[in-house]
């Protein structure tokens, strides 16, 4: 299959497309704080062409995200279309080895989980930051603790619906993401691991990052991965499996449960040197870094009928010009900021994580 492997200025390959289908969200996590204003969202044809062109440039992994991607009315059709294209041998989309989705799990009903599986989704990651209902409510920004508890149970049920639909955690088809904020949900680490362990789900602890401007991030809020591992070693036998090139997670094998715990250490151990991810927002802006101040508007190349060649050249030129390494320089950048601790940049719910 003819595709050109694209590299940026630091010889980093373009491998992963993180495509946000919707910036809005039905949760309001305290570390993310979605803005929920309305945007002109791209249509199916435009999403499809972005995926096609990215695959022509070497992308082999697609992550569908948001905001909350399960709120998107275009999701099922998009997945179905990609599934069909993946079956065509000469189609660059067949280059996709992995199609995954990140969700808060609230809309992961039995029907939805079955549809996602049927439509060719390979993997799901569910975000879950606490098992205690009050802490969960706090993390998702739900003031009413009774509603928060109901939402927690719906998410936990959603995880089981996904497993029953065929997203087998033992085969890496279902994972959990947990953001740990110091003194807010750090007492949930063991409970989260126990919950995941019972179902052989890999749980990935993400260091709280300074994305967006509304979460009031402070360095002192970060609960470092190293500390999580130190804590877990008191109770579990962990073997370091390291971080694979181009991946974000450092994996640890828990021999007492035949499953993995992972850490994503963007703050304490940045992985910019092999960052292979392009983000495209639901309104058609390309971001080559989670911490870019501005995206590049692809809409002029997305008006119908789309000229694939021109769109491809645009994305190629964006990637080739890429120099990003924000996490490697984070504290130098922040030191220069005298007025506030946080660099101005778009929110996580807009960028898609
Ligand atoms: N709404 C979906 C969800 O929560 O899974 C998908 C979008 S969300 C922006 C993608 C991932 O980003 C989630 O796993 C979430 O926990 C993570 N995230 C959001 N804000 C973050 C922050 N400030 N630091 C670290 N991770 C964050
Ligand atoms: Fe919504 Fe995901 Fe952000 Fe939470 S992390 S507010 S679920 S987009
Ligand atoms: Fe990639 Fe930017 Fe994160 Fe570095 S800071 S790993 S370049 S997204």
TrEMBL record:
Keywords: 4Fe-4S, GTP-binding, Iron, Iron-sulfur, Lyase, Metal-binding, Molybdenum cofactor biosynthesis, Nucleotide-binding, S-adenosyl-L-methionine. The keyword Iron applies. Its cofactor is [4Fe-4S] cluster. GO terms for molecular function: 4 iron, 4 sulfur cluster binding; cyclic pyranopterin monophosphate synthase activity; GTP 3',8'-cyclase activity; GTP binding; metal ion binding. Gene3D superfamilies: Aldolase class I. Residues 9-243 form the Radical SAM core domain. GO terms for biological process: Mo-molybdopterin cofactor biosynthetic process. InterPro entries: Aldolase_TIM, MoaA-like, MoaA_NifB_PqqE_Fe-S-bd_CS, MoaA_twitch, MoCo_biosynth_MoaA/MoaC, rSAM, rSAM_sf. This is Radical SAM protein. It comes from Prochlorococcus marinus XMU1424.
């Amino acid at each position: 299959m003819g595709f050109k492997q694209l590299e940026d200025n630091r010889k980093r390959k373009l491998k992963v497309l993180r495509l946000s289908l919707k910036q809005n969200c039905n949760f309001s996590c305290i570390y993310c704080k979605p803005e929920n204003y309305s945007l002109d969202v791209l249509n199916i044809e435009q999403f499809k062409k972005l995926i096609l062109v990215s695959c022509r440039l070497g992308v082999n992994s697609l992550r569908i995200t948001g905001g909350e991607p399960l709120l998107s009315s275009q999701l099922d059709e998009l997945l179905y279309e990609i599934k069909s294209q993946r079956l065509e041998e000469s189609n660059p989309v067949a280059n996709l080895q992995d199609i995954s989705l990140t969700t808060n799990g609230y809309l992961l009903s039995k029907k939805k989980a079955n549809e996602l599986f049927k439509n060719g989704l390979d993997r799901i990651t569910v975000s879950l930051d606490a098992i205690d209902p009050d802490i969960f409510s706090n993390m998702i920004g739900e003031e009413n603790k009774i509603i928060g508890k109901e939402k927690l149970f719906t998410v936990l049920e959603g995880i089981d619906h996904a497993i029953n639909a065929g997203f087998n955690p033992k085969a890496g088809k279902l994972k959990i993401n947990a953001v740990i904020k110091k003194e807010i949900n750090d007492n949930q680490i063991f409970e989260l691991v126990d919950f995941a362990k019972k179902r052989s789900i890999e749980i990935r602890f993400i260091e709280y990052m300074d994305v967006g401007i509304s979460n009031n991030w402070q360095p002192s809020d970060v609960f470092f991965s190293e500390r999580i591992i130190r804590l877990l070693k008191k109770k579990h036998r962990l073997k370091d499996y390291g971080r694979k090139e181009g991946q974000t997670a450092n994996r640890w094998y828990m021999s007492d449960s035949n499953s993995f715990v992972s850490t994503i250490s963007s703050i304490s151990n940045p992985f910019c040197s092999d960052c292979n991810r392009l983000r495209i927002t639901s309104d058609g802006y390309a971001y080559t870094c989670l911490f870019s101040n501005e995206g590049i508007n692809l809409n002029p190349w997305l008006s119908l009928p789309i000229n694939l060649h021109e769109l491809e050249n645009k994305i190629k030129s964006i990637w080739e010009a890429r120099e990003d390494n924000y996490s490697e320089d984070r504290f130098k950048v922040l030191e220069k900021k005298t007025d506030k601790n946080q660099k101005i940049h778009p929110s996580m719910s807009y960028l898609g994580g």
